[in-house]
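Hi C.,

You asked whether I'd gotten around to modeling the 384-residue construct. I have! Everything is below, sequence then structure, no commentary in between.
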Amino acid sequence: MKKIFWTIFMAILSIIPSQVWAQYNQVNIYPPEAASLMRNVDYPIGHLTGMPDIRIPLHSINAGSLTLPLEISFHIDNFIRANQMPGSVGAGWSLSSELQVTRTINGKDDLRPEGYCSTSTVPSNYYSNNFPYQQRTRQQLKYMIDGYADEEPDKFYYQLLRKSGAFYFQKQPDGSFKPIPVPFNGVKINYSNGQFTIIDTDGTTYVFSTSKIDTSDDAPGVDHILAWKCEGIKNAAGIQEITFHYLNNYNYLATSYSDRLEVYDDIYSYVGFDGDYGIKSNPEGWDGPLTVPFWQVTGAKLLRYAASYSNQLYCNRQNDFQNLGDYNGGTPSQLYNNITNYLTSEITFRGGSIVFLYTNECQLSSIQIKNTYGTTVKTVSLTQ
């Protein structure tokens, strides 16, 4: 089925990013710290991408063999996006101490039922020349078409000390799913009981929290984890050198809009012809609301999404579109999300601590560097 989208306007939202309401297979708004990490990995700084290196060094933490640079950096792509709201250090800016694992949700949430990691038809080895052809029943194909199953993995991102990258879950021969860095760089990523642990090539271990997580909902009671915050860093000897602390989660409501037209011009390639999955031509006539599933209506069709409803229009034998009025299928163009976001409050290490202070609007106002006795030795003030 060919599907053509005309987007009238895409995302106008309120206060900090989020996700989408209605079906948990659409996520287009993310917390600012998570979005900054995605931009830096997808569009790295360099002459090849045209992204300039704009950063301001503030301080540097030396904890045993580890060094944590404290700086703010600016990314042009993160600044110019209309649907990207500013983080705690301002629009387009990010703080280097925001170590985390985040992700872009493709299709359904990998970690929820019916997501990628729960779909039985996912192949276990994409690289083998001998892996068996994965046959799918018509029912399984319909589940994927209707959004009840998912074979598209989410893209995960990670930020370490002076290193960042991406990874995906890959199905193993025993049916389990293992995080695999892409491209492969020697970093080992483990996921168990909802917790990520990453071991760098120098033996440094990063533990990411199961409780300090940024989330977004797409329906009441349906939350999706968008970011796992770093709890602590251990050196190659297994000694905890750096520990992260966070403020109580900040909650807010985000609204996005996506008025659009959807034109379907080849329904036959979508549903086939057989039995319960075949096409019902003009099932209810041209008057009154449509109650049969959208996929059972034959011929070219057009959907108009506006406000919180959708009008369905489709083509009759004379090829002129007729309006059937409101139709409740699909995703509405006005979407709401409840967002929870954790901000770093303090970083402790053997030589002291760093304290982050915020305004009532969650804007970073100052950073205090303290020694082992709790005495402030340096203060960095920010005005936004």
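If it helps when you're writing up: Confidence is low (pLDDT under 50) at residues 1-25, 267-289, 314-330.

Thanks,
B.
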